[in-house]
């Protein structure tokens, strides 16, 4: 089957050529994006075990948590629970983070 011409599709959407079918396409795209995000979260969750040392990356808010370090103490749904090494802002003990917001640290 022919490859989808993504650039052409984007141009047609931008030009309004596909306005009549956008209400049909948008929910399907949204559903697919949610599925991809869920798969990414599950994959990222599997990388962390209790006791792992981690650093919070630059994708989280509030930004003062960036670079904070801690130890994984558990999971809460789709999030990883991290006990911070030091209090950071209003966070004095544990913080829950999406797994994509964490980077493993080598043994210190």
Summarize the main sheet.
5 strands, antiparallel
Sheet/helix structural class: alpha+beta
Rg, Å, rounded:
20 Å
Count of DSSP-assigned helices = 2
- Distance N terminus to C terminus? 52 Å
Give the beta-strand count. Answer: 5
Approximate shape? elongated
Order of secondary-structure elements: HHEEEEE
**Order of strands in the sheet with most strands:** 4-3-2-1-5
SSE blueprint and pairings:
Elements: H1 6-15, H2 22-45, E1 53-56, E2 69-76, E3 79-84, E4 94-97, E5 102-104
Antiparallel strand pairs: 1-2, 1-5, 2-3, 3-4
Question: Mind explaining what this structure looks like?
Answer:
The protein is α+β, with helices and mostly antiparallel strands. The chain is built from 2 helices and 5 strands. Strands 4-3-2-1-5 form a 5-stranded antiparallel sheet, with no helix packed on it. A hairpin with a 2-residue loop joins strand 2 and strand 3. The model has no long low-confidence stretch (mean pLDDT 91).
In short:
With 108 residues, the chain is α+β, with helices and mostly antiparallel strands.
Summary tags:
31% helix; alpha+beta; 5-stranded antiparallel β-sheet; 23% strand; 5 strands; 2 helices; 108 residues
